[in-house]
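note to self — DONT lose this again. spent like an hour looking for the file last time. sequence + predicted structure for the chain T wanted, 240 res
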Amino acid sequence: MIIAEVRDLVKRYPSFELKSVSFDLESGQITGFIGRNGAGKTTTIKSMLNMIHPDSGTVRYFDRPLTGNEAEIKKRIGYSAGTISWYPRKRIRDIVDVVRRFYNTWDEETYRKYLNLFAIDEMKTPHELSEGMKVKVNLLLALSHKSEVMILDEPTSGLDPFSRNELLNIFSELRKDGVAVFFSTHIISDIEKCADNIVYISGGSIIAAMPKTDFIKRYAQTGESLEDTMLRLEGGVIHA
């Protein structure tokens, strides 16, 4: 089931333009958003959440436009742009007590489920956590208000290989629960491990938005890894 529709997003800056970006996200699917630094990944994600205002285009979630329904829709979306940086010396339990008051959709059973799954100690402070555990706290807070879509900007950046692999396993668990996971990354091996779909952006334009298997069939050459394919495409002329 299509859970998010992005259509013809345009955002112009003096030195960069997002050009008619369009793609869909499906429930129970992991979509990797790939492209080199400066390709437009963060601009797209912020436009999808109305954190910046696109010049044109539309975004719909749950078959409703974001415009006019933003407050209700965002209760069903989890967003993270990296690790937490607020209240570094407050206990996780105290931070959660503050956050839960903002959501009438907060579900204590779901919170406990992911608290145990992520092995988070409520009595610790963010200051005491590893970078990987900080990412998990962000995911915990988002999922505990029953997020049906997770939109994550470079969630594995800066993590050690073990923590990255652990996070990708969490994405797979969320997929089983029907959550749509959309995450940007320039670490192509992460896409190979867990993604169902690929959205590939280059120079502000969507080059491909399709299942990973179709992307490999269309663009990969014999014996190439997905990373090899991306390096070749970025180094030459790309045909959509």
